[in-house]
Specification:
Layout (H helix, E strand, L loop, with lengths): L32 H21 L3 H12 L12 H5 L7
Helix pairs in contact: 1-2
Length: 92
């Protein structure tokens, strides 16, 4: 469930990110200033490692989930068609 932590592990969002009215992330602790502060160390590590591996933070996060156990199958979802078509979410 939510292998991208509702998008947080993609590195796409910052403490200054805003979401549309009605977006569930408006009320999630990890998308508040304190939540970002708690996640900062992990997000920085993901950024450094993804740059070393020449991949996106999203790809690295999904790859990590795939390697945890043979029976774990991460299923990233999206509410927007353009994100599903994006090469940034594809794993090769």
């Amino acid at each position: 469930f939510s292998p991208m932590a509702k998008g947080l592990l993609s590195g796409k969002f910052t403490p200054d990110s805003t979401f549309e009215k009605g977006d569930f992330r408006n009320n999630m602790p990890q998308y508040q200033k304190e939540g970002y502060e708690k996640a900062k160390k992990l997000l920085n590590l993901l950024k450094v490692l993804s740059e070393k591996k020449n991949c996106t933070m999203a790809q690295l996060s999904i790859a990590w989930m795939l390697r945890k156990k043979d029976f774990i199958v991460p299923i990233p979802g999206s509410r927007k068609l353009q994100l599903m078509k994006s090469k940034k979410l594809m794993l090769y």
